[in-house]
Amino acid sequence: MRIKLVFTLFLGLSQAFLFAQTNTKPVPSPVVNDYAPILSFLSSDWMEGREASSKGGFMAADYIASMMQVFGLKPIGDKIKGTKQGQGYFQNFEILRHQTENSSLAFINRSAGSQTAFELAQGIDYELKGGTQSIDAETQVVFVGYGITDAEKGYDDYKALDVKGKIVVVLKGFPGHSDTTSIAWKKLNKFIGEDGASFRKKLQTARKNGASALILVDADGKFEPFERAQPNRLLLKSTMNSVKNTDDEDSEDYDHVLPNDTANDMIPGFRLGSLAACQLLSGSGVSLSDFEKKTAKTALPASTILKDKLIRFSVTIKTESLLVRNILGMIPGKDSTKYIVLGGHYDHLGTHKGQIFNGSDDNASGASGLLALAKVWSESGVKPACNLIFASWSAEEKGLLGSQYFVQEMKINPKDIKLYINMDMISRSVIEDTTRRQLSIGTRTSDKYIRDLVQKINTTINPPFILDLWDVTGHSGSDYASFTARNIPIMTFNTGLHNDYHTPHDISATADLVKMGDVLKVVNESLQEVLENKKGE
């Protein structure tokens, strides 16, 4: 009887052990000691904010490359000339920085054979996003509503309009943006939203239609500084409470592009103050408030040429070349023809007025999480089903240029990349997330199997995340956009846009290391599921 009981107990334990083995992934997820020290060092004052092309940026790149070497990743960057080492970890490339040196803007009203010019002052009447090329012109003015084209929903402010060589006037926002009960909101919000109505998107659409420049006006008359969401520019002053004495010198406007990337050339964009906007539209028959109300009700554009009005403007641009670098390492897989790419940018905003923008969450968290995953995979000795590329991008803050350069120059057929996993800001929570358990994961609509597997994985997290599964279509907030542009499946992980975003308060002491570890567990488990999942082929 005793022997039978022991045997039964042994059999039960064996079955439990086998069950645990079959339900445990062969590569363990990173623990705190795998990523916390890296996070702390990358976001330390030593790195000086890691701005791309700066001393701190190059120091961070050296450190990340050294860690990839320690973890035994195969270097797949540029070939090292004059040595037998073959490739190194760095993928070096140049970006162009366009800086506005000076500008002018004047309204010209014509009547009864005469004309009157009104000169405007920069910083008082208007602000400027200077574009990528110098220009000096006098041209007609066309009001093009919100400056939006959405072929899918049949909305086009530029329909039947010839704006080539002209300056276009556009409204901030999108049809129905201020009335969530309106017809336009219900029809267009899902497809346009904030990304589709961004200032940059409006500039791109205007350029595509041949406009020489763009003027942005606001129906409610507000006049605030531009959002500084790009590289080395400051943020909206309302989010910069810790940065005092923000003056014109700090507000210099830059645009960054890859050389020969004519598709992303930018036209000048002027943003008018309320008085200047009233002066421009005076006598034109265009009422911004009436246009907004009518468009919200009808979801139909109503663009028009502003008769008897001209605009004279000039913009002088200075261009210089900057050296930046991605860091690339790989764990070779059983199938050397297929790839999964894991990435997270390591650059941030650098320093301003002696204050360091450490960028712990944005994005030392993603960069350190990337290295932690490389470490556990390397140490496991498991040979993945396909090649795993670990990529730490530069110049994300300057326009996703590091990942854009990678996909532009890669010798890999996009069809051979099963998945791109992006980690950008994975160690904090928004104020509203009192449980600190919200996790945002973006995928393409077509990749339902990815959403299904991540929901299954989330049930194994204790406590599970409150998942925000969203569609990346039409969005370009991080490096995933460079891959969706090549029709590559993606997963992009983010834990929320907190109040310390792009401020000197984003330091490692504020990181939620437990939450970050759970995020990396979801990433790691997702990676292994996709490696095993034939739908990912």
Low-confidence segments, given as residue ranges, are 1-23, 225-252
| CATH topology (level 3) name of the largest domain | Aminopeptidase
Q: Which structural class is indicated by helix and strand composition?
A: alpha/beta
The CATH class of the largest domain turns out to be Alpha Beta
Mean pLDDT: 87
Percentage of helical residues?
25-40%
> What is the assigned CATH homologous superfamily of the largest domain?
Zn peptidases
Number of helices: 13
Mass-distribution shape: globular
CATH architectural name of the largest domain: 3-Layer(aba) Sandwich
Quantity of strands, as a count: 20
Biggest beta sheet attributes: 16 strands, mixed
Straight-line N-to-C gap = 54 Å
How would you describe this protein?
The chain is α/β, with parallel strands linked by helices and 537 residues long. It contains 13 helices and 20 strands. It folds into two domains: 27-95 and 323-536, Aminopeptidase, CATH 3.40.630.10; 97-319, Glucose Oxidase, domain 1 (3-Layer(bba) Sandwich). β18 (438-443), α11 (448-458) and β19 form a beta-alpha-beta unit. The longest helix is centred in the N-terminal third of the chain and has 21 residues, at 2-22. The chain starts with a helix and ends in a 5-residue tail after the last helix.
Would you summarize the structure shown here?
With 537 residues, the chain is of the alpha/beta class.
Core attributes:
single chain; 20 strands; Glucose Oxidase, domain 1; 537 residues; two-stranded antiparallel sheet; 2 domains; alpha/beta; 28% helix; Aminopeptidase
